[in-house]
Structure formats: structure tokens, C-alpha cells
Design a protein that fits this description.
The protein is about 10% helix and about 35% strand. It is mainly beta. This is ASCH domain-containing protein. InterPro entries: ASCH_domain, PUA-like_sf.
Length: about 160
Amino acid sequence: AIVVKKPWAAMLVSGEKVWELRGKRTGHRGRVAIAESGTGALIGECVLIDCKPVGHRGPGEALVPPQLHPENFLGLPQNVDRHRVNNFNEVPYHQVWAYVMSKPIKYVYPIPYAHPRGAVTWVKLARTGLQTDTSKTTRKAPTVKTALPKTSKQK
């Protein structure tokens, strides 16, 4: 699971936000649970499909576009709609990466999990299996040491 602060976690699982901004790149790809920071709960899942540089701190500490792909700059209007951050002073990173998410699923009920001490970005979950419904609107959540409730796909 990836740990995401409020309100960004809910925006990811609803599909309102598709870029999660981070200070380090990741090589992870595939379905990840979204753990809402401070709640001890998983609120949904997304598929992490890409990780791309979207800016860095330049002279004077202003955010500037990545040199190789300036079209990915987080400050461009079309990209603000992807990450939903309006105040770039809230972005504390020197290098800024976008974890690109797709196929969001919001759980009908939050699923409690044991948050390991010191975990900041990633949490490894115990998993006994994944059961899926063949319809496009529902998905059963992965088993995390207890029986889990049904889920509802939101977009």
C-alpha cells in the first residue's frame, strides 16, 4: 500500500486525481492499495502505471520544468488538473516525481490494517488472496488478515 495524506487519498480512489507527487521515483508498477495517512485504514486501490519527473527546485528554490520533458511540468494548467495541488509551496521536494495512477477503486468500507512503525511512503500488507467480481462496478478487496467487505468501483 502507498500511504497518502488527506484529502489526496480520497481524490485518488475517486479518480479526481491521477498523479501522486513524491520526492523519489519508484520502479513499482501494478495495483496498489491506498492507505489514508493517520487513519490506519485502506480506502481503495489504483494501478500505478508510470513514474515521471515533473519538476525540480531551481535557483532561488522555485519549481522549474524537467529538462528532458518540459511538457510534464507540474505547473502547467493541464497538469494541475492531474495532481490538484494549487500551492506549490506545499510541495516540499527538491526533485518532484508523479506516480501516475489509473483504474481507481474506492472501497465501500475502509479496511483496517496494522501500520508499521516508521513507515512513511510504502506499507507491505499481508495478503492471502484477491477475489474479483467479473462486473465492472464491484470488486472484493484483498484479504488482509480478516474477511473484507465488498467494494464499489467509482469511475
